[in-house]
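ok posting inputs for the adenosine-5'-triphosphate job
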Amino acid sequence: MEQTLSIIKPDAVAKGVIGKIVDRFESNGLRIAAAKKLQLSQAEAESFYAVHSERPFFKDLVEFMISGPVFAMVLEGEGAMAKNRDLMGATNPQEAEPGTIRADFADSIDANAVHGSDSVENAKNEIKFFFCDREIV
Ligand code: ATP
Ligand code: MG
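and the output
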């Protein structure tokens, strides 16, 4: 079954909406195969978002991702990667469709509540970044 990585970012964790966001996944046919709350180090955040290292917003993105704990999950289900991206909504919450996670819980393009893998191939690497095999059940 297809798997993807979801991260509830520090803004949404601080707001206390982990449960509400997890409910969006479980109510839409995505199973939580793994989950953990953790504090990323600067080196970990830089490595996780390395594809964006040349972008002007990279420093702000890393600072934001280490500003507090995150809640990482492996979501599993048919078409899990694309389904998660649909549930998340557009990167900029002002452009996100009503009813999406970012429309409902995000404040800005920086503090945008959730991360989701953007391809099935990237999902495999991102899942390995956070979880070992025995944590995915
Ligand atoms: P994520 O990778 O976090 O799931 P995404 O795939 O929707 O989000 P990306 O293009 O991968 O968006 O950008 C990664 C993150 O970098 C975004 O979530 C956002 O917080 C930040 N970001 C992207 N574009 C901009 C921008 N133009 N200005 C500021 N921050 C940005
Ligand atoms: Mg992305």
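notes: The radius of gyration is 14 Å. Residues 118 surround magnesium ion (ligand 2) (CB under 6 Å).
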